[in-house]
Amino acid sequence: MIHIKTPEEIKIMQHGGKILSDVLFAVLKNTKPGVSEIEVDKEAEKLIRDRGGEPGFMKVDGYHHTTCMSTNDAIVHGIPGPYKFKEGDIVGVDCGVYYKGFHTDMSESIRIKNNKPLFYTGNEKSYDDEVDKFLSIGKKALNEAIKVAIPGNRVGHISKTIQDIVEHKAGYSIVRSLIGHGVGKELHEEPEIPGYLDDDVRFTPILKEGMAIAIEIIYNMGSPEVKIDKDGWTIRTQDGTLAGLYERTIAITKKDPLIIT
Fold first, then answer.
1. Residue 228 CB-density burial (10 A; 0-12 exposed, 13-18 middle, 19+ buried)
2. Which helix (H) or strand (E) holds 109?
3. Are 138 and 115 in contact (CB under 8 A)?
4. By C-alpha distance, which of 40, 140, 46 is closest to 94?
5. Per the domain annotation, does 238 fall within a domain?
6. N or C: which end of the chain has fewer CB within 10 A?
7. Count of alpha carbons within 13 Å of 9, Cβ hemisphere only?
8. Average pLDDT over all residues of the chain
């Protein structure tokens, strides 16, 4: 069942989303050589609680951290550990906030370059190397996917947009086993929002005003195949190539999509 949010509920999610966005970018700015994954995680928890929210991921059964930390070949669900970042690392941080009964979800990937975090807009006109191109393409796919999240379009329009940019044009791989989702009172709700389209767009759920969804770009530089670490959480690229992820929670409105995180 797809839950339609009231305007009041969307406003609550906007507040939670503001907390999440502010915190995620604050900790990413401090993601530098010598800083550890767990230090970033602990800082995120403190900042979220200081702002009146709760770490949403801690409400997932069996998970005890504020963030999921995906470094280099880790795709998603990485448990923050003692690893200290170094020059050249790709770091994806996924984080959620629970505020007044509603979840928001967000992720961003950066590259540690010249001893500081490098953020991507998706509008880069040139690239220093293939890694810069890889991360810029993912951000571009997120930006363009959000634009088609309007009433009357379908989930398939989002999926096709992502796949066209990441796979068909750039030659990278969308991970099939990891997808976006609805979000609200539960962290993961219907509908599923894949980053690829295997069926006719007409057979995918229609987007309606009041829906809140998390659009995710989960992709690899090489093969789309994955493997799971012994910790039972961390999912990595099977071939050891780099991975990236970008995610925003948005609401479908009468006109343009409302970016919540």
1. exposed
2. strand 102-113
3. no
4. 40
5. yes
6. N
7. 18
8. 98
Question: 43: left (phi > 0), else alpha (psi -120 to 50), else beta?
Answer: alpha
Q: What percent of the chain has pLDDT over 90?
A: 99
Structure tokens at 45: 């928890």
List the domain range (segments joined by +) for residue 33: 7-255
1 located within any domain: no
CA nearest neighbour of 77 among 9, 172, 175:
175
Q: Give the SS3 label for residue 209.
A: coil
pLDDT digits (tens, 9 = 90+) for 127-144: 999 999 999 999 999 999
CATH number of the domain within which 198 lies? 3.90.230.10
Contact 104, 97 (CB under 8 A): yes
| Predicted confidence (pLDDT) per residue in 47-84, tens digit | 999 999 999 999 999 999 999 999 999 999 999 999 99
Q: pTM to 2 decimals?
A: 0.97
Q: How far apart are CA 45 and CA 26, in angstroms?
A: 12
Give the separation between CA 178 and CA 233, rounded to whole angstroms: 13
Instruction: In whole angstroms, give the CA distance from residue 55 to residue 32.
Output: 23
In a domain, 157, yes or no: yes
The number of folded domains in the chain is 1
Is 38:81 a contact under the CB 8 Å cutoff? Answer: yes
**CB 58, CB 66: distance < 8 Å:** yes
261 is a domain residue: no
DSSP code at position 57: G
Looking at per-residue pLDDT, the higher value among 199 and 201 belongs to 201
Give the phi and the psi of residue 245 in degrees, each rounded to 5: -150, 140
Q: What is the mean pLDDT of residues 92-120?
A: 98
SS3 content of the chain, % helix, strand, coil (to 5): 30, 30, 40
